[in-house]
């Protein structure tokens, strides 16, 4: 019986320490968010630099914030051997976001406005949902790869603001009587198609852009991989990662 008070006291100390740690983390997160109130911060962790915290953003980026000196650092942290710590952490964070996004995504929602193109014989096992900008050079690399393969692609246009022709070209392709022909012609020429833009194309592009914003897409290309047998999204590819795209194209042949 004499041991009971000691056990109770130890438990209380442990509970208090755990609570104190949680409270400290909450205070730190609150301090960081207070420095950048208009920025959506998903989580906060202490960084490798004393006094700085890593603010993980919903768009996949990482900021370094010192709430005590009210300083924000935007850039890369490198080791003395030239390895970017920021790049590794950013990729891990994007992977975490993509995993969560896949769980929440409904296939029907993400293809509801898309235009499907079957290149050559089309896909057997995997479809690709592509968010693209017709003026984006990285999108061009992906699309040129698709054109040579047997693959089915759902196209969602997501013109970026710094590409002056992207919005008009998206609308022209959507207004064309043959979507695939117009898509391929503009990809090849990178010139106006001189097609009258329809009100339906205007609305479709508006819907595609709204969907991209809802999915928090910050750049193109963005690709979602669909398992046709399971009828669900199984992976997300950011950027022109041709190696990863080819891995699915190769598996599609098997």
Brief summary of the model shown:
The protein is of the alpha+beta class. 46% of the residues lie in helices and 20% in strands. It is built from 8 helices and 9 strands.
Protein architecture, described:
With 254 residues, the chain is an alpha+beta fold. The chain has two domains: 24-103, Nuclear Transport Factor 2, Chain: A (Roll), CATH 3.10.450.70; 105-253, Glutaredoxin (3-Layer(aba) Sandwich), CATH 3.40.30. 46% of the residues lie in helices and 20% in strands. The protein contains eight helices and nine strands. It has helices at 3-35, 85-104, 107-110, 137-148, 166-175, 179-189, 199-214, 242-253; strands spanning 41-46, 53-57, 62-66, 71-73, 115-119, 126-132, 151-157, 222-227, 232-238. The strands form two sheets. Strands 5-7-6-8-9 form a five-stranded mixed sheet. The N and C termini lie far apart (70 Å). Keywords: Disulfide bond, Periplasm, Redox-active center, Signal. One of its GO terms (cellular component) is periplasmic space. It comes from Campylobacter coli. Belongs to the thioredoxin family. DsbC subfamily. It is found in: Periplasm.
Summarize the topology:
Elements: H1 3-35, E1 41-46, E2 53-57, E3 62-66, E4 71-73, H2 85-104, H3 107-110, E5 115-119, E6 126-132, H4 137-148, E7 151-157, H5 166-175, H6 179-189, H7 199-214, E8 222-227, E9 232-238, H8 242-253
Helix pairs in contact: 5-6, 5-7
């Amino acid at each position: 019986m004499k041991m009971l008070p000691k056990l109770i006291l130890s438990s209380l100390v442990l509970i208090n320490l755990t609570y104190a740690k949680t409270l400290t983390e909450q205070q730190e997160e609150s301090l960081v968010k207070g420095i950048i109130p208009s920025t959506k911060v998903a989580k906060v962790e202490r960084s490798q630099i004393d006094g700085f915290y890593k603010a993980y953003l919903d768009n996949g980026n990482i900021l370094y914030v010192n709430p005590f000196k009210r300083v924000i650092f935007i850039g890369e942290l490198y080791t003395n051997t030239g390895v970017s710590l920021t790049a590794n952490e950013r990729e891990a964070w994007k992977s975490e976001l993509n995993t969560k996004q896949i769980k929440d995504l409904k296939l029907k929602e993400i293809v509801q406005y898309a235009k499907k193109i079957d290149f050559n014989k089309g896909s057997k096992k995997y479809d690709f949902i592509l968010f693209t900008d017709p003026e984006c050079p990285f999108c061009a690399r992906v699309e040129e790869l698709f054109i040579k393969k047997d693959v089915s692609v759902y196209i969602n246009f997501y013109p970026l603001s710094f590409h002056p022709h992207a919005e008009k070209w998206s609308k022209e392709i959507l207004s064309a009587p043959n979507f695939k022909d117009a898509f391929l012609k503009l990809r090849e020429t990178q010139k106006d198609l001189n097609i009258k833009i329809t009100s339906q194309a205007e609305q479709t592009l508006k819907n595609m852009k709204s969907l991209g914003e809802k999915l928090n897409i910050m750049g193109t290309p963005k690709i979602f991989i669909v398992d046709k047998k399971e009828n669900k999204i199984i992976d997300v590819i950011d950027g022109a990662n041709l190696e990863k795209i080819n891995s699915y194209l190769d598996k599609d042949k098997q």
